[in-house]
Amino acid sequence: MKKNKKLLKNLPNKEGYYGSFGGQFIPPELKKPLEEIEKEYLKAKKDINFQNEYNDLLKNYVGRPSPLYFAKNLTKKLGGAKIYLKREDLNHTGAHKINHCIGEALLAKRMGKKKLLAETGAGQHGVALATAAAIVGLPCEIHMGSIDIVKEYPNVIRMKLLGAKIVEVNTGGKCLKDAVDSAFSQFMNEYQTTFFTIGSVVGPHPYPMIVKDFQSIVGKEAKKQIIKKEGRLPDYIIGCVGGGSNAIGLFNEFLDDEVELIGVEPAGKGTAVGQHAATITYGSEGIIHGMKTIVLQNKEGKPNPVHSIASGLDYPGVGPIHAYLKNIGRVKYTSVSDKETLDAFVELSKIEGIIPALESSHAIAEVIKLAPTLDKNKIIIVNLSGRGDKDIDYVVKLLKIN
Ligand SMILES: *Cc1c(COP(=O)(O)O)cnc(C)c1O
Question: Which positions, given as ranges, span the membrane (predicted)?
Answer without folding.
Answer: none
